[in-house]
Design goal:
single chain, Rossmann fold, 8-stranded mixed sheet, 3-stranded antiparallel sheet, globular
């Protein structure tokens, strides 16, 4: 496991610094507000507001601290929407790290945050009556993703200049194939090459306002053929 250091971001919420990559797990301008803006507001909420679906399948690339999963749970805990949440992580955090994170101080949901991390890998787990969690300890490049299986993709890998192997057009094609028609992909990254590659794969690409401290983010939608 690489050397990882706890840090405090500008909104008071914690993140982690991977010292080997010199890369943080979330924006230093605010971990919670970044995840809320990119993945919940412009991903999950956008999809639910535009589709009349009660069963939604999410793929997350980069489970990390579990923050995106916790915010997703908070969003649907009293909702009629049922979520099947699949998340990939090649280097899961140990309890000595995730237990220090302060997300539950502002979000509550302490019991669920613990369950997110303590639930077994590579086995489905009913986190809520309407949320099934499947954590897969695999590299994205090695994971088997069924075709047309996911409604929403949270693409939250480390940045392209830190882990370029996760942002190649071949890897993005694998994700695109796994998306259903009208599925939504959201990511904090707004690099020109990423947008060109997503467009080359046939996705409709939008450049949106980024979270505080970041100018832009990307949302891509898989159109009907």
């Amino acid at each position: 496991m690489p050397s990882i250091k706890l840090i405090v971001t500008s909104d008071g919420s914690h993140s982690l610094l991977n010292e080997a990559l010199d890369e943080t797990y979330h924006s230093v301008h605010g971990a919670i507000q970044e995840s809320e803006h990119v993945f919940i507001k412009n991903g999950l909420d956008h999809f639910l507001n535009s589709r009349n679906l009660k069963n939604v399948s999410i793929l997350e690339v980069g489970f990390g601290t579990g923050l995106n999963a916790l915010l997703t749970l908070r969003r649907i805990i009293d909702s009629p929407v049922a979520i099947r949440y699949t998340t990939l992580e090649s280097f899961p955090l140990g309890e000595e790290l995730w237990s220090m994170l302060n997300y539950t101080q502002s979000l509550g949901l302490t019991e669920y945050f613990q369950k997110l991390h303590r639930s077994a890998w590579d086995e489905p787990y009913d986190l809520l009556p309407n949320m099934e969690l499947m954590k897969k300890q695999k590299l994205l490049q090695q994971a088997e993703l069924p075709a047309e299986a996911f409604d929403i993709v949270y693409f939250d890998a480390f940045a392209p200049n830190k882990q370029p192997e996760l942002w190649t057009i071949d890897v993005l094609k694998k994700i695109a194939v796994a998306m259903k028609t009208n599925a939504v992909l959201v990511t904090y990254c707004a690099k020109g090459q990423l947008k060109r590659d997503l467009k080359a794969l046939g996705l409709n690409v939008e450049t949106l306002d980024g979270p505080p401290g970041k100018k832009e983010m990307v949302r891509a939608i898989k159109p009907a053929l």
